[in-house]
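Reading is simple: the token line describes the chain's fold. The lines below illustrate.

. . .
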Amino acid sequence: MRGGISAAASAAFLLALSLGGCDQRGDDSSTGELANGTATVAKHYEGPKPEGVSSTQDAVTTTFYIPQASISDMYEIEASELALVRARRPEVKAFAKMMIADHGKSSADLKRFVAENPVNIAPAQQLDARRRAMIVNLEQAGDAEFDREYVGQQSAAHDEAYNLHQSYANRGDYPALKERAKAVAAIVARHREHVKTLDREITGSR
């Protein structure tokens, strides 16, 4: 062993480096480990948590924004398709139907934008590990708790989505995409207020 460094010590050093890299924003698609996220999560929601863009003034690059925006849309659609089948409250089903329509449109618009502009970054093709775990969390929820679980996720996810789109609108590096992000942020803001009202109604919280 040259320099007195054992194989075990080398392995420990490499492990420390790899763990340190887990804090890099946008890396969640390459690891199965779930991040705990930020205070964007509804207080009662205990499942896998949204994370990433924590304010409306984060420096969000186009390379980060496009895949994350597309994953956000995919998650919303898949979660809401489950809610259409399993939700008990009609107002939750109505919200889910709106999510499928609005996020389906924003997903198609983003794909069209990428096809028509030289941004050189493609939308994501599948959910990342974190959002996949959130879907699994919904799938495993009991019938009596599904509405609460879905709305709790939606409350948290719309905080994250709003921060993502508004941050890019404020500080993005591709002017035409900034305008699109601004329009999407306005739609997400309406969704966010709607779902927080549902959240209060279901949980009885203020």
Q: What stands out?
A: The radius of gyration is 19 Å. The first helix runs from residue 7 to 21. The chain has six helices and no strands. Helices lie at 7-21, 62-86, 90-116, 129-140, 146-171, 175-203.
